[in-house]
Structures are given as C-alpha cells and as structure tokens.
Amino acid sequence: MNNDRIGARLRSALGHAFGGHTVIPGEAGYDDARRVWNGTVDKHPALVAFCRNSSEVSAAVLAAREVGVPLSVRGGGHQVAGLSVCDNGLTIDLSAICEVSVDGGVSHAGGGSLLRHVDTANARAGVVVPAGVVSHTGLGGLALGGGFGWTFRNFGLTCDNIVGAEVVTADGSVVQAGEHHDADLLWALRGGGGNFGVVTRFDLGNHPLRDVLFGQAVFAIDDLARGVEHYVETMNTVPDAMSSICITRLAPPIPGLPPEIVGRPVVMIDAVWSGDLEAGEAPMRWLVGAGGPLTSRVTRMPYTAVQTMQDDLHPHGRGNYNKSRYLTTVDETAIKALSEAGNSVPGPHSQIEILRLGGAAGRVERNATAFAHRDAAYILNIVGAWTDNTRRDAHVAWVRDTYQAFDPVGSDAGYINFLDAEPDRAHSVYPEPTYSRLREIKRRLDPDSVFRGNVPVTV
Ligand SMILES: Cc1cc2nc3c(=O)[nH]c(=O)nc-3n(C[C@H](O)[C@H](O)[C@H](O)COP(=O)(O)OP(=O)(O)OC[C@H]3O[C@@H](n4cnc5c(N)ncnc54)[C@H](O)[C@@H]3O)c2cc1C
Questions:
Q1: 13 lies in a domain?
Q2: How many domains does the chain have?
Q3: pLDDT digits (tens, 9 = 90+) for 159-168
Q4: What is the position in ligand 1's atom list of the atom closest to the CA of 84?
Q5: What is the pTM of this model?
Q6: Distance from Cα 238 to the centre of ligand 1, integer Å
Q7: What is the pLDDT of residues 133-171, one digit of tens each?
C-alpha cells in the first residue's frame, strides 16, 4: 500500500471523534511536520497526528493498530536517528501537550513539553527539575532515557525525579503510574525509553533553586593533557553541587578568548554549581582557574540563563551523527585518543564531550530504576555535525575512529539518549536483571510491540 492510501485509511480510522489536526503527504505543512532536529533525517510518515490530550493519543494509537502500520512518538524531535518519525506509518506529534504547572514539590509537565517550557514554569516558582542543557530538547525522550544536565550530580537524573505519569498504553488505555499504582510501570519509565506507551503527563519532583554559578575554562590543544588531568582530578573530589562537562572542539567565540584562538582546537571545561553560592566560589574558581587555561570565568546567573546558553550552538537542521559509550577511566590512553581526535576535528560544529558522572545520580541503587549504569565513571559522546553534506563521510569516519580509539577504556554500554539507531546494544544498555524485568512489563503492556523505544525491548 502506498503512503497516500495508508494516510487516507488512517484518517478514516481516526474518525470524526479525533478533533486534532492531521496532515498527510501532499498537504500543506507535511514537510514541516516530518522534519526533526537532525537535518539528514528524511522519513515519510503516512499521517502525522497532532494530539492535544490523552484521548486523542489513544485514538491515534488505535488507528495505527487498526490499519496495521508502524507508530512513532515525537516529543521534541531531538533523537539523533530520527526515531520519533516513521516511514509509511503514523507519527504522534505531542507538541501541543506542553502545559507545565507547579504544585508544591511536584511539577506537572505535558508529554510534549520542551525543556524550556519546564524551566520557565519552574522558574516562576523558584524551583528546577534536573534536565538537559539545551532548552529546545524534548522532555519526553530525555526523561524516559535518563536525563543528564547541569544539576544531575546534585538532584539526580531527570528520570530519577519522575514520581508519576499519565500513560497511553498499546491497547489505548489511559493509565496512571506512580509509587502506589503500577509501580512497575513507573520503574520502567525511569530509563526504559519509549517502550511502554505514550506519556502524556510527567509528574516530576522539583528542587528549590534560582541562581547558579557558571564557570568556564578554555585550554589550548597543546595543553590538553594538563587540562584534562586537572578536570579528572578535581571532579574526583568536588561536592555534588558541581556538575560539569569537558568538551574538545574548535573554539567558538567566547568572552575573554584571544581572537586568534577562535576556530582552533581547544579543550573547554564548563561547570555549574547548584548549591549554596558562597560555598561554591572556591571550588568553581579552582576547577576553571587552575591548571593554566587560556581564559576562565565564574559568573552568577539565573538557572534559566544557563539552560539556554548552548541553544544556538546546536540548532535544528544540521547533519548529525553521534556515537557514545561509558568510560571506566580517563587515563593516558584516553587523553592520547582525545588529543588525536581534537587535532583532527573535521569542522566547527563537531565535538567530543566527556562528562564526569556520579554524585546523587550515582548513588541510586542499580536496580531501583530501569536506568542501570549507576557506577559508570564517565560518558563519552562524540558528536559529528555539519552543514555541508559533501563533508558527511569525513564527519562520520571521524566519529567512528574516535569511538574506537577509546576501546581500551570504553564499555559497549551506552546511554540510550546519546545512541543512534543501535538495537544491537540493547543488552549492554539494559544489563540483567534490568532487561528481564523490562521484558516482563513489555509483555504485559505491549505484547505486540506497538512501541519501539530507541533501544527496543523485545517481548
Ligand atoms: C541538541 C541536543 C542536546 C541534548 N542535550 C542533552 C542533555 O543535555 N542531556 C541528555 O541527557 N540528553 C541530551 N540530548 C539527548 C536527548 O536526551 C535525546 O535526543 C532525547 O531523545 C530527546 O528527547 P525528544 O523528546 O526531543 O526526542 P524525540 O526524538 O521526540 O523522541 C525520541 C524517542 O523518545 C520517545 N518519546 C519521546 N517523547 C515521548 C513521550 N512523551 N512518551 C513516550 N515516548 C516518548 C519515543 O520513543 C521517541 O522515539 C540532547 C540531544 C540534542 C539533539
């Protein structure tokens, strides 16, 4: 059956009861509706259903099942392989379900919220929910896979803060998951990806916070070893209030950076202190000031400002290819690999990120959530990003070579939100007994595998 016919059948299966907007191939808005963050993704759903509430999501799930076509679920559209859209099937677009309200210690966020919706509503109440560092990322995919950002060492991963959810399951039911009702589903939502249903509302524990300290240091590539060693040593001992990232890339224009360095390979350390601000001054100044950086700064700013400061570095529409894995250590071998990759970065938008894990996120019991890799020391994320498609192969090769160069200190396991489409890594992402428990829940709630998370759990 061709896409037009599938689209017409889906529309008829949705029926008049579905009040939301739908779009099929050839109609105005179709190309916008199928576009995701990664500009190389070019998928053609037969119908995109813009759902406004859980009943419409339920109708869309049932329509896809009735017609017998694939279903995909789109939150913010940032998953790098474009898994939120599907070919020849029905894409549920949740962008209209983005209302956020704060009720004491719990923030309620629509399943299609972007991080900026959550941060803005929380800021009015002087609270935060830990999340990612780019405000146009979707809460849905991020929270269901984990959620690392500027406060995870202090307040846990985003998924650790899911205390309840409204979920549309594969048979179209609308269920509530929480500690006292379907705690198994709640457990699965804390890291199990989009495998169990469409989350139309997240209930998220929040934390009082308004201002943070932001710190940044930039090291010349020739000083990479010194900068990275300093990062590793310092992050081994700092309080949980500090979360940070070490990025190797071509230098963007940064306040205080000599102009001749812009466009040359550098190592940047970015950090945020989300505890008592006075107590944070000294450790932040040590992290970004010691070790001989070219430039460094520590600035107090509202949390919402730090949450948006990277937005323009990662705009929609570029080509992107990522590979990611956990690292057991960052030693001499890793530093050598980083140095070689840093000296051969193929373009101004590609970068290698290393995050020191641990803190509150590391102290959660391994089996307490579907996110199992609590003892991993670091995440490595290699990001290839380009605007000129003729350079695609060079970026992809650089990402793959760099990934391999970390073999001696790298695990096969990775963080699902930084993976491409890599179903073969399911068992390392979800080690036993996590995978078996996810499978049991999958068998109960989605025996026909209607939902396919970025890393699919098979029944
Ligand atoms: C620029 C950029 C910055 C990022 N920064 C961070 C970061 O700081 N920290 C971090 O941890 N990750 C980060 N990521 C990775 C990010 O967590 C993943 O890309 C995640 O999938 C994004 O969620 P989304 O809703 O935008 O994804 P989508 O592409 O919309 O969805 C991905 C998958 O999630 C599932 N899904 C989404 N919403 C729902 C829902 N409501 N109910 C059920 N299933 C759903 C579906 O299975 C879907 O296929 C970043 C990614 C990008 C591109």
A1: yes
A2: 3
A3: 999 999 999 9
A4: 49
A5: 0.97
A6: 29
A7: 999 999 999 999 999 999 999 999 999 999 999 999 999
